[in-house]
Hints:
Blueprint: E1 11-12, E2 26-27, E3 34-45, E4 48-59, E5 63-67, H1 74-81, E6 89-94, E7 98-99, H2 105-111, E8 113-116, H3 128-136, H4 142-146, H5 152-164, H6 180-192, E9 198-202, H7 210-223, E10 228-232, H8 236-242, E11 245-250, E12 253-258, H9 260-265, H10 267-274
Parallel strand pairs: 5-10, 5-11, 8-9, 9-10
Antiparallel strand pairs: 1-2, 3-4, 3-6, 6-7, 11-12
Helix pairs in contact: 3-5, 3-6
Amino acid sequence: MSLFSLPKVTTRRKPVNMAAGLVSPLVLDTSHGSVLYLEDVSVSFDGFKALNRLSLDISEGELRCIIGPNGAGKTTMMDVITGKTRPDNGSVFFGQRIDLLTLNEAEIANAGIGRKFQKPTVFEALTVFENLELAMSSNKSVWASLFHTLSGEQRDHIDEVLALIRLGDLRQRQAGILSHGQKQWLEIGMLLMQEPELLMLDEPIAGMSAKEREQTADLLKRICKNRSMIVIEHDMAFVAQIASKVTVMHQGKILAEGSMEAVQADPKVIDVYLGH
């Protein structure tokens, strides 16, 4: 089965009621059209408001770009979504029912949210294929992951991701000798092996060549056919190429939102961000 025709996964194998010792599936309910919803989220660090009553709604299947000056709260927002930072107040829901503020980082990842940081973090001593194999495994021991027998379905899944990230011909190449752009694609592939419903990328084209940027834009648009995506990026040409909607953050809240053309023409955005 093609990666693009995989059925929508709505049930995640996750313990929900940890206090009672019960194991229940997390069910991602996007029946109202939203895959992620933040409402009135605030975060303060030593009196500094990193997020100031931030509200954000990401639709199912949407590729949303988040832009804004340094210190606008973009990374803090991602930290809240992934459980790294707990907000002072507000609510964060994955779909209609999954309250992310009740889950830890590992539980949020297992629920179907994948995050990629700016600097690629791959296992450089392993091959491209082995990196994807390790990312797929439920047993995160490197030894156990690399010395078990893959099923035909698992091999097919790795082959599909290899084709998607354009590394099929480099499957046996050691990850440490890949180009910077190829390492970025490999890490995206490692996240895709876990079949996230929401993928969050922080400056995915930083350090890439012009050709790699074009290929990354095409990759992200193809990935978004099966999942939602949030991309933090400063390259305006790249944002214009990929985004269905752009959110501009400033001082921990939303300054403007809409199409790239609309936000570029917004006087507030020009004043605090694009004009500098």
